[in-house]
Amino acid sequence: MPADPSATLLIDGTWRSGTATFDVTDPATLQVIAQVADAGPGEALAALDAADKAAETWRRTTAEERSNALRAAAGRIRAQADSLAALMTSENGKPLAEAKGEVLGSARMLEWAAEEGRRANGRTTPDGPGGPGMVLRVPIGPTLAITPWNFPASMLVRKAGLALAAGCPVIVKPAEQTPLVGTELVRIINEAGELPAGVLQSLTTSRPGEVAGALLADPRLRKVSFTGSTEVGLSLLASTRDHLRRTSLEMGGHSPAIVFDDADVPATAAAVAAAKFANAGQSCIAINRLFVHRAVHEEFLALLLEKVAALRLGHGAAEGTTTGPLIDFGGLDKVERHVADAVKRGATVAAGGRRWTPEDAELTGAFYEPTVLTGADDTMLISSEETFGPVLPIYVFDDDDEAIERANATDYGLAAYVFGDGLARVWRAVDRLSFGVVAVNEAFPVRPELPFGGVKNSGLEREGGSEGIDAYLETKSVAVRL
User: What are the UniProt keywords, alphabetically (predicted)?
Assistant: First the structure.
């Protein structure tokens, strides 16, 4: 650990302080818990200089050596899972159990990246008139990874791990709301993997637009991987108008779930509650629109309300807490606006529907009660906008085609959920849903072995699975005359 806790800029192998700092707050109490370095364009370009200088050395490092470095880091992350989880909870607000699960999942993702780096094979082609052909897969070059606040560990590790495994130097820009756990993960990966200077770097900043802008204006940056809002993601894509570069985007979700009348209703109620209310609903794959077959609606609703009633709001570090605060009051305002609009248009609040007022006076953050709305229809704001909070609207349907059509009626296409027992019926739904990830009787469809990403305005390219490393590799064709 550095002597100066605000030395959170890793540039060219050295941890540095900036000329300024910014505060990091606990979203549950709004208390300042740390100050970190506030990088600007100058530090960003210094990091890019170092990445450009390190690119050839890291590219020439064998896949086995890169893999061993990532495996060593994964082991260190597991060993420090408790402290990393506590750090994440302090700045993000999610319950400790969720935070630890994310940290351990990050270690799995890093190991998967290590394995994929050793499988980034090319191929040979049959002889032509002059000789054979070869297809090579080569590192794309210096990469910028922009990571979100809602999953500050897993998103950082997934991006950085795949880039490093492919042979690309990577500059990480953690979200300004949650820079602490990201900084610590970078420290672990850098030290455990004994990485050369410039291969892994990190920029904490309260000025993401200025920092990213300086990097995007430089043609040496060959790749950007971003997770966050659709608005920002589309602006990053527009930045390629002068310098074409590979861009991976994982953006908004607005995920639907369909509950057929042959679903296991108790198991489905539990899965829906978990998929919706984890991280206080602040997930790009949280269920945002729940379509329930009329035949099981009443039974399902009763069981779902039992699950929701069992949720406990509080500080994420407190024993028994299942639901923490929203990240800020801007998020709370949107939640309230969606609920008010839905009620105005005829929805009924079956659970929650208001801010939570804790007994502990120190809990001054943006808490909102887990909420279920019945009688929702497609005219409501919540039907067309992603809420990103603990509110679940329920829509009743009678016909499978109707449910699928309504589920697809969105500009987004990240994740969808299907609950049912009949294989043919479920498969037809999976086939017709226009989403990059489909969960079948499953609450958490994110696995290292599966590619993750969306269609339409939810993103470009994939992370994870055997497809994930492709985003960090270029294809080179070689024609040989013998």
Answer: Oxidoreductase
